[in-house]
Write a structure and sequence with these properties.
- The complex is a heterodimer of chains A (256) and B (484).
- Chain A has 256 residues and is of the alpha/beta class.
- Chain A contains 8 helices and 12 strands.
- In chain A, a hairpin with an 8-residue loop joins strand 2 and strand 3.
- Chain B is an alpha+beta fold.
- Chain B has 16 helices and 14 strands.
- In chain B, helix 6 packs antiparallel against helix 7, helix 7 packs antiparallel against helix 8 and helix 8 runs antiparallel to helix 13.
- Classes of the chains: A alpha/beta (256), B alpha+beta (484).
- Chains A and B meet through helix 1, strand 6, helix 5 and helix 6 of A and helix 4, helix 7 and helix 8 of B.
């Protein structure tokens, strides 16, 4: 059997460049594209198929929209659509600073923090994770960010053990009533100015647990949110895109 | 015998005779003595208050399931003193329905916030308490752990959960609906396939629908990929906890490679939206099957030397051997499931005992390790990883032709259906009872974690508190699956 040294040589370097050079495989279910201009008159097929009311048909108050913050990427809408007005692409970029920015059609993109905040945080972030009712898929993808493939720490971003050492918190899950106090206390323990990053459909909107009497429909019910990262769960690249966008380290798709 | 046998996973509720409290208790104990196991215990709320109890008995030696039903009760004599494995099931029953199991030794909360008096404390000189959580110092779900220590030695550990309780069973009530399968997938996100298959099988049994053979093989394939990925990831986590970083890095990457195989044909690293009642949603083209098989063989070749390195490095082995031991008897009494139980010598594996689809052809072998310690749990997980990869390769080479989905009709009214699926943590049980309109009147979920968390607590007794992370990783139980 080979020694650790020979295995090490054979394994080589597994760390992938970011942004990913070749993108994600075609099969990956990433950012949806929604073009209501293609919708047949009065068609509500997608809205009826959606289990989380993420798709809203046009009404006289507002145009038709797809809310990435509610979307579970389950394909019910795109399969129900007779005209391919709604389809999923392998694009991993979906994060937004505002809830409004998660609506499609829309420009998308992550607005960087202002100059003063960026100077304060430097080029790095120390974050504390608070799991508040997530099914552990979001947590697993946050954890995967630390492995040798995604290697989060090369970007100066690290998860820390104590909120006292953190610049902000990453919240996953719809925020269960049983976690409300713990989330608030953790947030309070982070020195100001502090960031809150809501990761995954549950933390943004409650996801499939929206309206549950045991949960609060997402992080915003308890703490102010600075960055929304959609997905069920979001791919590690989607999370990274949001974090680096926040730090102003992505421009025109390039890292700097 | 009573008419409670589940044929094809389903029984007609009308043929079941509801037993009075004492008779129900006796019936369950009698069956447990005759080789039955309480796979699930559910309450069916009665209109006039209280609830009827429904015990799902599993006979693992002949793959049979039986439902035992009681008349509406508000209290009964607890099963736990005679059948310790029911301890958490009875506590859950009380919490959900208020049916009191009289004489239960310790009715502490399952998912409700615990009070000070719910915790056991050791008194005495030099005894101290270490309390951790709910928010932990890592990327982990929340739970509260209280250690009673004498120096570094753990005398007792109590694990109090419930922080992730988001109301899964309640949300499933009244289904099946458009979000039912999605809710099942989010019971324990790292066991998306396991719970989705259990849910689909329950709905199919209620509707009297048979998924096509090709769909069953694709489900099994996804289930084994999920198992292999999770086990590989945990072997890496255990390596990390003993400070053996090469294996931690490589297993971590290989876990991702295996998850990416799921993504290659489902579009999601966790296989979200693959399994639906009636079949699966994503087919494998011949090219995809060949590609996945090729990458699996590559992963197999890479995994073996890393595992060898982990198990044969003396300093690693010294940390795994004898840490967190559990006896076969303790495992059986607690009703432990899955790899944690098999590492103690238990023969339980739902793939072998209650097979479906391609598992009917056999091929699931029990692992050899049975010393009950962290080493055995690691070895069991490694041998299961290899076995999963082998099974996947075999199925990829002989996928049955035909459709991947059939129309699954509406569930029949007045039925009791159950499915037992061996997820990577152990046996997942979904149990559904339909009302007169064919809707879920009660949907009961049992993740193996519910049964296994006390196993972790017991394994820590007389161990060093610094061994807790390692011992915990060797079980890696689900908070979300426990809390529902």
């Amino acid at each position: 059997m080979p020694s650790w040294l020979t295995i090490r040589v054979r394994q080589g370097s597994s760390t992938r460049p970011f942004p990913p050079e070749e993108g994600l495989p075609e099969s990956f279910r990433g950012a949806p594209v929604f073009d209501p201009a293609l919708c047949p008159d009065g068609c509500r097929a997608c809205a009826q198929a959606c289990p989380t009311a993420a798709v809203r048909p046009a009404s006289h108050q507002q145009p038709a929209s797809l809310d990435l913050g509610r979307c579970l990427f389950c394909l019910e809408c795109s399969e129900a659509c007779p005209e391919e007005a709604l389809r999923f692409t392998p694009d991993h970029r979906m994060a937004s600073r505002t809830r409004q920015g998660l609506l499609r059609p829309g420009p998308g993109g992550v607005e960087a923090l202002d100059e003063a905040s960026r100077r304060l945080f430097g080029r790095s972030l120390r974050l504390r994770h608070v799991s508040a009712g997530d099914c552990s898929a979001c947590a697993a993808e946050l954890q995967a960010l630390g492995n040798v493939v995604f290697d989060l720490s090369r970007f100066g971003v690290q998860f820390v053990a104590s909120p006292r050492h953190a610049d902000g918190i990453v919240v996953t899950g719809p925020v269960t009533r049983n976690m409300e106090t713990a989330l608030r206390k953790t947030y309070d323990a982070v020195p100001s100015p502090r960031l809150v990053i809501a990761t995954g459909a549950c933390a943004i909107s409650g996801g499939p647990f929206a309206g549950s009497p045991h949960a609060l429909d997402g992080a915003e019910a308890v703490v102010p949110v600075d960055l929304f990262i959609p997905g069920c769960p979001p791919h590690p690249w989607t999370i990274l895109d949001g974090l680096l966008g926040l730090l102003g380290r992505i421009e025109k798709g390039e890292r700097r | 015998m009573s008419a409670g046998w589940l044929e094809g996973g389903v029984a007609d509720r009308a043929t079941l005779r509801a037993l009075e409290g004492p008779a129900f208790r006796e019936a369950v104990l009698e069956r447990a003595a005759a080789g039955g196991r309480v796979a699930a215990l559910a309450g069916l709320p009665a209109p006039a208050g209280g609830a009827s109890l429904l015990a799902l008995m599993a006979y693992d030696d002949r793959g049979a399931l039986e439902a035992v039903l009681s008349s509406p009760l508000s209290s009964y004599r607890a099963l736990t003193p005679d059948l310790p494995q029911a301890h958490v099931l009875e506590r859950e029953l009380f919490e959900q329905h208020g049916v009191l199991p009289e004489g239960h030794p310790w009715m502490k909360p399952v998912r409700r916030t615990a009070r000070r008096e719910d915790f056991f404390t050791v008194q005495g000189e030099a005894v101290h308490e270490v309390a951790v959580g709910p928010v932990h110092a890592g990327i982990i779900d929340p739970g509260h752990f209280r250690f009673q220590c004498h120096g570094e030695t753990v005398l007792h550990l109590q694990i109090q959960l419930g922080y992730q309780h988001r109301g899964v069973e309640e949300a499933l009530q009244g289904g099946p609906g458009p979000s039912s399968a999605i809710l099942a997938e989010t019971i324990a996100g790292d066991t998306t396939i396991g719970h989705a298959v259990a849910h689909a099988q329950v709905v199919e049994a209620l509707a009297g629908c048979e998924p096509p053979p090709r769909a069953e093989v694709i489900r099994a394939l996804a289930l084994e990929l999920e198992r292999a990925a999770s086990h590989a990831g945990d072997l890496g986590a255990m390596a990390g906890d003993v400070g053996f970083l090469p294996a931690a890095s490589w297993f971590g990457r290989l876990r991702g490679d295996l998850l990416n195989l799921l993504m290659a044909f489902t579009g999601s690293r966790f296989g979200r939206s693959l399994v639906r009642p009636g079949g699966v949603r994503h087919d494998l083209t011949e090219d995809m099957a060949r590609g996945i098989a090729w990458r699996l063989r590559g992963a197999e070749e890479e995994l073996a030397p890393v595992a060898h390195l982990l198990f044969e490095t003396p300093s690693v082995r010294a940390r795994l051997e004898g840490t967190g031991p559990l006896s076969k008897q303790a495992a059986a009494e607690l009703g432990l499931l899955g790899p944690a139980a098999r590492a103690c010598g238990s023969p339980l594996d739902a793939r072998k005992d209650h097979p479906w689809g391609p598992y009917r052809a056999g091929g699931v072998l029990l692992p050899e390790a049975r010393s009950g310690d962290v080493l055995a749990r690691a070895q069991v997980r490694w041998s299961e990883t290899r076995q999963s990869v082998r099974m996947c390769l075999e199925w990829l080479g002989s996928l049955p032709h035909g459709p991947i989905r059939t129309e699954c009709g509406a569930p029949r009214p007045g039925r009791i259906a159950a499915a037992l699926v061996e997820g990577w943590r152990g046996e997942i049980v979904h149990l559904a009872v339909t009302g007169p309109a064919g809707r879920f009147e009660r949907y009961k979920v049992k993740d193996p974690s519910l049964q296994n968390w006390p196993g972790l607590a017991l394994a820590m007794r007389q161990g060093a508190i610094s061994d807790f992370p390692l011992c915990n990783k060797s079980f890696n139980l689900s908070y979300a699956g426990h809390d529902l």
